[in-house]
Design brief:
- One of its GO terms (cellular component) is DNA polymerase complex.
- Pfam families: gag_pre-integrs, Pol_BBD, RVT_2, SH3_retrovirus.
- The aspartyl protease (PR) mediates the proteolytic cleavages of the Gag and Gag-Pol polyproteins after assembly of the VLP.
- One of its GO terms (biological process) is DNA biosynthetic process.
- One of its GO terms (molecular function) is aspartic-type endopeptidase activity.
- By secondary structure, the protein is of the alpha+beta class.
- About 25% of the residues lie in helices and about 20% in strands.
- Strands 17-16-15-14-18 form a 5-stranded antiparallel sheet. A 5-stranded antiparallel sheet has the order 27-28-29-30-36. A 5-stranded mixed sheet has the order 33-32-31-34-35.
- A hairpin with a 6-residue loop joins strand 16 and strand 17.
- Helix 5 crosses helix 8, helix 20 runs antiparallel to helix 21 and helix 20 runs parallel beside helix 22.
- It starts with 8 loop residues before the first strand and ends with a strand.
């Protein structure tokens, strides 16, 4: 008996409607046959169970041991909690007792369910809504695909593939070799990939006249690679027929898949990738008698693994990641196939988390309905289509008669299974002769001719009577930006060593891992010992990072072996953990004075800096993954006894800084450590440093980081706004929300924004500080506010913070507060900013610790906080040898606070103020700071304390040295 109707072949109505199980009676809805693939001594045997009952209310499949013995002559034995089933003295199945004379069959190891006689409609959906003619051809080209030639009308195909009448006939020449001609219409980077896969190089690149193809950089690249560039005639999209038709085919199939699965258009990129996967294992006109996959790899594909896009799926949760009473499977949605391994890609529709998995159970007849508001939505065709620019001299083509469909890809990954490259229908011929010579006199090629007949079911449909719908032309740069996003994200950082070594950049990561291990061996970080008894063994993991330069180009593949410090025990594995770190304020002060005094700025990197400190404690660590491969032998029951600190250990930072390097200069550092001299600093801590020595200025920006962050949270194509927060909105901790926020990455998003706010973006400091207050219990309203901040950054990703010599070297401060701005507890917010060289070097936006009883008190508390920062900045400036005879000037816009700071007489209105805030009086008296009045209209710290209108926000940003 089974509750799964989809497993049953030859499904019919049952003779018995009800059956008795114990004390209850359950209903039988159908009966049929279920086929299993039995693995015995390496030989596969098909076993069909007849008269299997369909009982929907069951929670598991039930198989009678008596039925096995009687029908198939099998013998069952029971030993303890195990049941063993034999056929001719060969073990064919086994199970583990679960109580009440029931045994759980070990299907994962001995049995595999196969799906014979799958319905043609289900096959049609699995192969990405391939046409009837294509499916007929496909059954002879692949394995695991049974199609009897009958296919019912598919409404999803009609909705997704409807098009205008075909264009006029034409003739064309075909390429005679793989990569002989590459047709391109806004496609992804593939040159280096296909060269590695095939050992052959691209000979001809055919494109239209778009600016992304016709530019100096592109021309130099093609010339360097020896690739001939063929361009289509302006206003003749027919010459780009291969690329256009390929895009159209993918988009039509993807649209049909989305329609069939009732999915919102935001999943279009995953649908296109899955359609591309199916296209590679489908028949094409260019390749006779085989699929593009077989042409590329030489292997005939087996399609038993294909599943229906968008169906419900249950992913097995490893026992290491769940407790005893946790569910053993997680419900997700199937969205495609893995690129660098055999497995499936699945998404959690709530959190948008994407995982790769092998152990998956599919419910292919059940789809998620993820349309907005649960209602059907028409697709915005402008997302998938638009005219291709075929203009001369890079003009814009506004003619919409020659419409073709293009696609953009802003998804994080491009999944081509087994590294198969997508070939258009007309790109490959059976002729495999290799001709490396390129004839420069080749004629301009035209679109290949292919006769297309209207399907019989559409013969009665009056195509000529349809109105000629004009699709909107999209800005071509939308596609270019999407391409750039895809190029950036093609190089994803692996999470595990398995992903690293088996991925497309496996050779780079293998070299990086080798370099890291050899570095530890050279440094004598550990020694291999027998695992001691009664000792805490710290675990470890590999962390992989792709280092990029200021232009976003890959500079280095970095691997780090990191100890899992959270498994250390205080007092045994570590004692002290404090270690000093550089503050952004210090870095900005140095850069500001470098601009003013024209100092040189060089950058150095200490190789494996964290492993220089010697451990005081006795720490043992597990053998890391990949370790035995590099040592050339197995180390069972061995561990690593650490001699030196390792990344991740709680005391590593302290030990790294405790080495006596206080008085070292550049040469001494090189003598003590293995150092890399990186030359002039242009990229540090995720900040791009741009210098204009002629004008005496240095500018900082985080464009690369911000763009990456926006892509991470799917906000890279959001509509920009002018301010970080809405002036008319009110946010507090008690905002009601019916939305479950546990799976929303609110805290992670706040952390990402906080990094930018602390480094180069004082304009979002107040907004991010406000969001930090809701991390403990966020609501949907707070998440919308987070996304608004990202929308603001979307329009200002290129903002720069500049310092120039023209503004002098004085340190100038501004402080402000908003009185009772927090509507929940009526606390005020303090804000200050300090300037050097016309740019902000230090700023803060922070809620005050106590409730102020007046505006004077609130401003006084803000002035006190600013005074503390001024004293610290003064010490840095003094250490740099820069004198400030008159102290640091701090501007305040409240007369009461200024008078209170200069008058220490006892007053009934100030007697309750905490003594710590009166610190400001002493530093004023000593001459370390001077407090002066600044009109409220000119107070540039205003946007650090409250939400301000656009004009005020832009004025404050400009005043602190930001160019938005």
């Amino acid at each position: 008996m089974t509750p799964h109707k989809e497993l049953i072949d030859d499904y019919t109505k049952p003779n018995v409607k009800l059956i008795k199980t114990g004390s209850s009676v359950i209903e039988v809805e159908g009966v049929g046959n279920v086929t299993f693939l039995l693995s015995r001594n390496g030989e596969k045997v098909h076993v069909t169970f007849s008269n299997v009952l369909h009982v929907p209310k069951l929670t598991a499949n039930l198989l009678s041991i008596k039925y096995l013995n009687k029908t198939f002559g099998m013998v069952s034995t029971f030993t303890g909690e195990r049941c063993l089933v034999y056929k001719n003295k060969h073990l064919v199945a086994s199970g583990t007792g679960v109580g009440d004379n029931l045994y759980s069959l070990d299907i994962s190891s001995e049995w595999a369910l196969i799906t014979h006689n799958i319905s043609n409609d289900l096959l049609h959906k699995r192969v990405g809504h391939l046409s009837k003619a294509g499916m007929t051809k496909l059954k002879d080209m692949v394995e695991g695909f049974t199609f009897n030639g009958e296919l019912p009308d598919c409404t999803s195909c009609i909705k997704g593939k409807m098009h205008k009448l075909r264009f006029s006939k034409g003739k064309a020449k075909r390429a005679k070799d793989i990569l002989g001609i590459v047709h391109t219409d806004i496609c992804g980077p593939m040159n280096s990939h296909v060269e590695k896969q095939t050992g052959r190089s691209i000979k001809v690149l055919r494109s239209d006249n778009g600016t992304e193809y016709i530019n100096n950089e592109m021309m130099k690249y093609l010339e360097l690679k020896g690739i001939q560039h063929q361009k289509s005639i302006p206003y003749t999209p027919e010459q780009m027929g291969v690329a256009e038709r390929n895009n159209r085919t993918l988009v039509e199939r993807a649209r049909s898949m989305l329609t069939d699965a009732h999915l919102d258009k935001k999943y279009w990129a995953e649908a296109v990738q899955t359609a591309n996967h199916c296209k590679n294992v489908s028949p094409t006109v260019a390749v006779t008698g085989m699929t593009p996959y077989e042409k590329w790899s030489g292997d005939k594909p087996n399609l038993e693994y294909l599943r229906v896009f968008g169906c419900r799926a249950f992913v097995h949760i490893p026992k290491e990641k769940r407790t005893k009473w946790d569910a053993k499977a997680r419900e997700m949605m199937f969205i495609g196939y893995c690129q660098d391994r055999k497995g499936y890609r699945l998404i959690d529709p709530v959190t948008n988390e994407i995982i790769n998995a092998r152990d998956v159970h599919f419910l292919e007849n059940q789809m998620y309905n993820l349309m907005n508001d649960g209602k059907p939505k028409f697709y915005d065709d402008s997302l998938f289509s638009g005219s291709i620019s075929n203009s001369s001299d890079n003009e814009t083509n506004n003619d919409s008669n020659n419409e073709t469909e293009s696609l953009r890809n802003d998804n994080a990954e491009t999944d081509l299974p087994d590294n198969v490259v997508s070939h258009s229908d007309d790109a490959i011929d059976n002729n495999t002769n290799i001709d490396n010579s390129v004839d420069n006199s080749l004629p301009v090629l035209t679109r290949p001719y292919r006769e297309t007949k209207i399907p019989n079911r559409y013969q009665d449909f009056d195509m000529n009577g349809m109105p000629d719908l004009q699709m909107p032309n999209l800005n071509r740069m939308c596609y270019v930006k999407a391409l750039a996003a895809m190029i950036n994200d093609c190089c994803l950082e692996p999470k595990t060593i398995e992903e690293a070594l088996n991925g497309p950049d496996g050779n780079h990561w293998r070299d990086s891992i080798t370099e890291t291990i050899l570095g530890h061996i050279k440094n004598k970080t550990w020694e291999i010992v027998d695992q001691p008894n009664n000792k805490n063994i710290v675990n470890c993991k590999w962390v992989f990072k792709i280092k990029k330069n200021s232009k976003g180009e890959i500079e280095r593949y970095k691997s780090r072996l990191v100890a899992k410090g959270f498994s250390q025990i205080e007092g045994i594995d570590y004692n002290e953990t404090f270690s000093p770190v550089v503050r952004y304020v210090t870095l900005r002060v140095l850069l500001a004075y470098a601009a003013i005094y024209d100092w040189e700025i060089d950058q150095m990197d200490a190789v494996m800096a964290f492993v220089q400190g010697t451990l005081d404690e006795e720490i043992y660590m597990k053998i890391p993954e990949g370790f035995n491969e590099y040592y050339g032998k197995n180390h069972e029951k061995k561990v690593l006894k650490l001699n030196k600190a390792l990344d991740g250990l709680k005391q590593s930072g302290r030990l790294c800084n405790s080495v006596k390097l206080k008085n070292w200069v550049k040469d001494e550092l090189k003598r003590r450590f293995e150092m890399k001299d990186l030359g002039t600093a242009n990229y540090c801590l995720g900040i791009k440093i741009e210098r204009d020595r002629k004008n005496g200025s240095i500018s900082l920006n985080q464009t690369q980081y911000l763009e990456s962050m926006l892509r991470k949270y799917c906000m890279h194509e959001s509509h920009p706004v002018a301010t970080p927060l809405d002036c008319n909105s009110s946010l507090n901790k008690f905002t009601n929300s019916n939305v479950d926020m546990r799976k929303i990455p609110f805290q992670a998003a706040v952390g990402s924004l906080l990094y930018a706010a602390q480094a180069t973006r004082p304009d979002i400091s107040f907004a991010v500080n406000l969001m930090c207050q809701f991390c403990n219990s966020p609501s949907k309203t707070h998440w919308i506010a987070i996304k608004r901040i990202m929308r603001y950054l979307r329009g200002t990703t290129g903002a720069t913070l500049s310092y120039t010599k023209d503004h002098g070297d004085n340190v100038i401060g501004y402080c402000d507060s908003n009185y009772g701005g927090d509507v929940a507890d009526r606390r005020s917010t303090s804000g200050y900013v300090f300037m050097i060289g016309g740019g902000a070097v230090s700023w803060s936006s922070k809620r005050q610790p106590t409730v102020a009883t007046s505006t004077t008190e609130a401003e006084y508390m803000a002035l006190s906080a600013a005074a503390k920062e001024a004293i610290w900045l003064g010490k840095i400036v003094t250490d740099l040898g820069i004198a400030h005879a008159n102290g640091i000037t701090v501007y305040c816009d409240n007369n009461g606070a200024i008078n209170l700071s200069k008058n220490n007489m006892y007053h009934t209105r100030s007697k309750h103020i905490d003594i710590q805030h009166h610190f400001v009086r002493e530093v004023i008296k000593s001459g370390q700071i001077t407090v002066e009045r600044m009109p409220t209209a000119k107070m540039i710290a205003d946007f650090l304390t409250k939400t301000v209108p656009r004009a005020k926000h832009e004025l404050c940003a400009q005043s602190v040295g930001l160019t938005l």
